[in-house]
Amino acid sequence: MTIIIHHLQRSQSERIIWLCEELGIPYELKLYTRDKHTLLAPPEYKALHPSGTAPIVYDGPIHLAETDAITDYLLAKYAPTPNALVPAPTAPNFADYIFWRHFANGTLGPATGRVMMFAFAQVDAANPVGLGVKARFENAARMVDDRLAASKWLGGDEFSLADLMTVWHLTGLRQFNPFELTPWPHVVEWLKRVGERPAYRRAMEKGDPGFEPLLGAGKPEAIRRG
Ligand SMILES: N[C@@H](CCC(=O)N[C@@H](CS)C(=O)NCC(=O)O)C(=O)O
């Protein structure tokens, strides 16, 4: 039985396609486009799982949402042990790997998401809560940049799941609330390396054909509402 990746285009479910491409896990891909007005998932996507959020993966009768749950599931069930994305617990960089793997969705993702929501709500720039939200995001981005100044990849010398989990928050997410990456030069260099990975290129082309991933430092064009 082949797993089905339900990919909401221009969304973080690109990470699951990428994970499967990196590890050679076979999958069937189903593509869904965002509602043109709300930019949210369309009703047929919402019907796939109670969460209604991308990614969603079907493995026969098992229907999973939540990126971290899906990655843990696919790695445990379908990836060889050891595999190239997860350092062994005995590796000297294991703690670094675990930290950055969880920093992605535990801190960086929520921080970028809150900044985006405040921008959507057009909160006054001097609003103290908004300023706090911005400061949390900038601190998270600075931490990633500092780490990448000291280490080629987030988890250490080799590309890992920590990188795969982090990329979306500093690339695709910027199409909803465009911002530059120029304050974080090591992030920009790292994204160049990410873009050289054949599995990344394949995943992006399969998931969002014709859409150039936002790997550059400049402010990207915002996704258009219909
Ligand atoms: N915590 C969830 C967040 C999922 C999420 O918010 N996905 C966005 C895509 S980037 C989504 O589904 N947006 C469309 C919608 O909410 O209708 C995860 O890590 O999978």
Describe this structure in words.
The protein is built from 8 helices and 4 strands, in the order E-H-E-H-E-E-H-H-H-H-H-H. The protein has a domain of 104 residues: Up-down Bundle (Glutathione S-transferase Yfyf (Class Pi), Chain A, domain 2). Helix 1 crosses helix 8. Strands 2-1-3-4 form a 4-stranded mixed sheet, with helices on one face. With 226 residues, it is an alpha+beta fold. Helices cover 47% and strands 9% of the residues. Glutathione (GSH) binds next to loops. This is glutathione transferase. One of its GO terms (molecular function) is glutathione peroxidase activity. It catalyses: RX + glutathione = an S-substituted glutathione + a halide anion + H(+).
Chain-wise SSE layout:
Elements: E1 3-8, H1 14-23, E2 27-32, H2 43-46, E3 56-59, E4 62-65, H3 67-78, H4 94-120, H5 128-150, H6 161-170, H7 185-195, H8 198-207
Parallel strand pairs: 1-2
Antiparallel strand pairs: 1-3, 3-4
Helix pairs in contact: 1-3, 1-6, 1-8, 4-5, 4-6, 5-7
Residues 8, 11-12, 40-41, 52-55, 66-67, 105 line the site of glutathione.
